[in-house]
Amino acid sequence: xxxxxxxxxxxxxxxxxxxxxxxxxxxxxxxxxxxxxxxxxxxxxxxxxxxxxxxxxxxxxxxxxxxxxxxxxxxxxxxxxxxxxxxxxxxxxxxxxxxxxxxxxxxxxxxxxxxxxxxxx
Length: 121
Prior knowledge:
Helix content is about 85%, strand content about 0%. The chain has helices at about 1-20, 35-55, 60-75, 75-90, 95-120. The model has no long low-confidence stretch (mean pLDDT about 90). Helix 1 packs antiparallel against helix 2 and helix 2 packs parallel to helix 5. The two termini are about 30 Å apart. The chain is mostly helical. The chain has one domain (about 1-120). The chain is built from 5 helices and no strands. The longest helix has 28 residues, at about 95-120.
């Protein structure tokens, strides 16, 4: 049952990530916005889930489906790393550094905001 929950959540998360990566972001055409957005949304959702599980108790089925499965399939660390490598390889060191800093800092902020939102609810 645990593997099935992770499989279902991961599949749905992966499909959502794929769709988000295919969206058109004309305001930042050279920036990997789909990956950034999927990672930030996943961080925010993990913040929500972290607080929900801390307050409501550890419901392992929901944790497996949503935190491990969906967020694991939706976030894209390997894609993120590859995009950074490609920027460095093409000589865009400053853009690569900006992407790393923006992703990590905003990711931590997104988790914090998710936790804070759940505390208000």
